[in-house]
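WARN no homologs supplied; continuing
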Amino acid sequence: MKIKALIFFLTGFILFSCNDLDLNPLSEGSSENWNTNASELDMSVAYLYDIDFWDAELTRTSTSTSLSGYELEWTDRFTDDWTARTSLSDITGGTINSQTSYVKLTWQYAYTCIAAANQVLASLSKAAGTVSESNLKMYEAKARFARAAQYARLIFLYGDVPFYKNVLSIDEAFSLSRTDKKTILAAIYEDYDFAAQYLPLSYGSNELQFPTKGAALAMKARIALYMNDWTVARDASKACIDLGMYDLFPDYNTLFLSKTKNPVESVFSIPRSVGLGVYIPSGGRAKEPITRIAGGFCNGGPSWDLLCSYLCEDGLPIDESPLFNPHKPFENRDPRCTATIVEFQTPWLGFMYQPHPDSLTVLNFNTGKYQSNADSRGVGQYASYNALTWKKKLDEDWLDLLTDPDNRIIRYADVLLIYAESKIELGEMDQSVLDAMNKVRARAYGVQFTETSSYPAITSMDQTELRQILRIERRMEFSFEGLRYADLIRWKLAEKVLNTPIYGMLELADLREKVIKPGLWFFPSTPAVDADGVADFSKMHQAGQINLLANRKFDPAKQYLWPIPANEILINKNLTQNSGY
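OK structure emitted
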């Protein structure tokens, strides 16, 4: 599913701003005379799918009001999968507060979209004479879908929040208190159920593409999973699967690139289009994960924790598998490892990627000549502090062009794993659980899930074992898709993994003396990995073979919820703050 990049930013601002004095000429659009026909409703509904409300990555548009860098915070920066030299995010540093930028912006974007959706819903009766009843139901379904998605984000992050379904006056808005999240969750389910009833299975090639029935079921399943409502998550994900509209894209490596538009795996996504001015720009923070030799900063990318979480080809963790060699950490690993992190001594973005400190020159494949290796600590002190660089989603489009990959909100692999996880938590282990998980794993190996001899198929029916396998599978499958943070929060693992150190390479002289000279590159030894897939590098650190870059800090007494933005508390005496902030 994808939505045409027909975004009406200015129109949306005019239509959905609250103003008691309506001074618009009668011949022009206003809150009083708008949404009286299909064209106006089309524009109003299109605004609800403005990419600012749904973006998971850094996007710019010719009319966008997004603040720089906000969206990239969702790309696993808040988790143990990410490291950016010695810096920490407000989440991983434990400094999040009621004035943190993304705390305020997430709230702002969500409620802006909710207000706009409520405005559409309140005005549908105006078009009753010019728009058919069936089309009015369609508009209502699209608006309710958008509202449900925004409330779902709010209750997961903030807990109890102000809840309303009508158009508010300023006085009414300032008098709202917080509603129990269980009450809001029930309303979210109602909105998604309505959307699933009236949205189509698909749209014609010449139609504007909006959410579908499958998208409503998938998004309902996701928020149910996040709220530990296993029965609803199971039933909604199963209903989405049973539609038969989706499948796994055969090639995991190219699934996330800008050239792969609207694949069969995409259940709900927002498109980007360079031609229409919605894109990820080549400059600024978008260059953080790009290698330095290719013109990027290489500041922000995979952590050692993530690298060590990928299983080996025999399905075992690195500290149990005889296939793992710490000096060649990319060999014999689950294929998603090298699809996500650039393997050493392989071509990448026009150059050979080799972060070894003694590889002072590397081949430029564009010129056929060797040149100074900016990705080696032997050449540049700001080369990657842990030698790893991000590969997933990136290609040459990120270098000189404006890149426009689809912004996928939920894909079919997630639906399958939602179904499997909800069944596991309900104690309903059966073949359908194994099939769902094995389909996802087999796709990574490029084989059918029934070809069990060609990949490490999952066979256990033990609930505890399957729970751990499922969690590792999600980490391998969804790295850098913004889902890891939600998983850590709902599994209550954040207090464990976000109170661990971030490690990297030693400074150059010590690296050569203590690691390179004894022949211990890359990892001096194999770190232990526990049942949650968390690696322990402390022995290497105690031996003086690796460097401690930063200490993560997560306070479980408060950080499982975000604070209510300070400005909201100041202007509304009825709002209370979350505990600890």
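Confidence is low (pLDDT under 50) at residues 1-29, 62-71.
OK
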